Structure prediction request, 164 residues.
Amino acid sequence: MLSGQNFTKVAILFTDGMDNASLLENSNDVISMSRKENVRVFVIGYSMANREILTSIALQTGGRAYFPNSATDLPAIFAEIYQFLNVHYIVTYTSDGDKNKKNVRLTVSPSPNSNISSETTYYPQSELINEAKILDIAWFKPNSSQIDESSNQNVQKLIEYLQN
Prediction:
């Protein structure tokens, strides 16, 4: 491994599920050894392969399990494994110093056609919104230019406020 670089090791296991030449005793040993060596195991099982055990090996090592119906399924499986290994999820977080606002960006790179990014801002605490206030001071009597008696008190308060 080159300094500063992190390479993923991959093992592609073709099996019919019959163990006739294994150097390891059981599937737990395969999982332990793979995890110790940082190896993702992708399983391609055919015939009478034990799907439950093979799927467990793949999932516990960061890989996937496939059970093709015929050899014609293999190119699509290899393409999916290639894409699986080449897609990275990058989540970044930035703060502009405001304790109430955080910026989060998710980038999937590379997606099948190009990089996909989405950015949003979330607020751990509610943020005050400055908005103009509209107050109903007076209501007019229907079909009249005189204000309703209940509005007299509000008009008097407005006059006092403006005078101050």
Observations:
- Residues 74-86 form the longest helix (13 residues).
- Residues 89-122 form one domain.
- Confidence is low (pLDDT under 50) at residues 1-5.
